[in-house]
Amino acid sequence: MLLPSALLVFGAGSWGTALALVLARQHYPVYLWGKNPDHVRTMQEQRCNARFLPNAAFPDNLQAVTDFATLMPAVQDIIIVVPSHGFRETLQKIKPYVTSQHRLCWATKGLEYQTGLLLHEVARAELGENIPLAVLSGPSFASEVAAALPTAVTIATNDTAYARHLAQLFHHSSFRAYTSNDMVGVQIGGAVKNVIAIATGIADGLKMGANTRAALITRGLSEIVRLGTALGGQRETFMGLAGLGDLVLTCTDNQSRNRRFGYYLAQGTDITSAQAQVGQVVEGVHAATITHQLAQKHAVEMPIVEHVNHVLTGQCTLLEAAQALLAREPKPEM
Ligand SMILES: NC(=O)C1=CN([C@@H]2O[C@H](COP(=O)(O)OP(=O)(O)OC[C@H]3O[C@@H](n4cnc5c(N)ncnc54)[C@H](OP(=O)(O)O)[C@@H]3O)[C@@H](O)[C@H]2O)C=CC1
Ligand SMILES: O=C(CO)COP(=O)(O)O
Asked: pLDDT averaged over the chain?
């Protein structure tokens, strides 16, 4: 069993804060790093993250910080929870301080926009082969986790000892982590469900009904399985928490920013204003483009993702996308 020391969480948005709270409730010393000094100062003064999770008070062992360099020697576990567009930048910040004592887990959901790389590939490229890596993903709205409502997630890593350690670290009376060795499957599930959630948000905004929503979720899952297995993910992973679980959550509940973003588009709001209206990260916008490109590269059919991408890049209207999906040639379901 690896012994936990202080824990350092990078990313003081809603999800980084919620995970820091889970760990702090386990009585570990937890540092929550935020990139915005004013925001960090406010968290220090108010002893909560009023901007994202106003109702969750920080326990004494949770400290918001802007300086991480001096903490790194006292830390073994690093948890990155910044949006995917800041993932490599965060790794580059910490890289000069990372040693063989550290291990890295992330809860970011997405792919690298510029390269289409999965985040474990980005982490390997930046930090080399010697650091244990893991990804945490699954159906988990930050506000429910902060409110200590029961939640289950998957932690995927190739390092069995690290898997056990992380599952134990996050294990709480209202938070349960299952382990997996399928880093590719877990990451593809978490990234692509955001694109399908945009599609269901659009369909619900256009009042297409419950049948359409169920069809999008189910056919969306087929697309995720096709791409995920083509990239080396395991089929069973997509039937688990980080696949079907997160897909259903995000496609059906208005707490999802991706779903709300799609809904706003269906109200006639333009893309920039819809993102502003959500007011937080909407990972599915970038993920639509990268996933579409990955699908083309690997010759995988992903019509829902393709049409969401067409809508977001101005190649067709919402109604044209819906008509094009319905006009596809009949084919076997499986
Ligand atoms: N919220 C949720 O329920 C869940 C979110 N996730 C995933 O967690 C990740 C983070 O999302 P979430 O916390 O919700 O996002 P939020 O929109 O709540 O917050 C984003 C935070 O990231 C900060 N940020 C932006 N760019 C950078 C950067 N380059 N480096 C460091 N920090 C940066 C922002 O700071 P500032 O505003 O000052 O720029 C802000 O504090 C996403 O990949 C998301 O998909 C996963 C599961 C659940
Ligand atoms: O990933 C999430 C819950 O598991 C959060 O989804 P949204 O980013 O769509 O809000």
From this structure: 96
Any atom of ligand 1 within 6 Å of the Cβ of 16 = yes
CATH superfamily name and code, 184-327:
N-(1-d-carboxylethyl)-l-norvaline Dehydrogenase; domain 2 (1.10.1040.10)
Question: Strands 175-180 and 133-137: what pairing?
Answer: unpaired
Length of the chain: 334
Q: Which helix or strand (DSSP H or E) is residue 22 part of? A: helix 14-24
Q: Is position 257 annotated in a ligand binding site?
A: yes
If we measure between CA atoms, which residue out of 66, 165, 180, 80 comes closest to residue 122?
80
**Ligand 2 site: residues with CB under 6 angstroms?**
109, 139-141, 194, 197, 246, 249-250, 256-258, 283
**CATH topology agreement for domains 6-181 and 184-327:** no
**pLDDT tens, position by position, 305-320:** 999 999 999 999 999 9
Please tell me whether the overall predicted TM-score, pTM, comes out greater than 0.95 for this model: yes
What is the per-residue pLDDT for 1?
Answer: 47
* Pairwise CA distance, residues 113 & 98, whole Å: 25
Domain boundaries, the chain: 6-181, 184-327
Looking at domain 6-181, its CATH architecture is 3-Layer(aba) Sandwich (3.40)
Would you state the pLDDT for residue 124?
Answer: 98
Please give the DSSP secondary-structure letter assigned to residue 244.
I
Q: Does the beta carbon of 13 lie inside 6 Å of ligand 1?
A: yes
pLDDT single digits (tens) 45-97: 999 999 999 999 999 999 999 999 999 999 999 999 999 999 999 999 999 99
Confidence bin at 172 (pLDDT 50/70/90): confident
Give the Å distance between the CA of 30 and the centre of ligand 2: 23
Q: Residue type at 201?
A: G
Residue 82 sits at the vertex; the CA angle it makes with 248 and 289, to the nearest 5 degrees, is 60
Task: Give me ligand 1 centre to Cα 333, in Å.
Answer: 37
* Percentage of the residues of the chain whose pLDDT score is greater than 90: 96
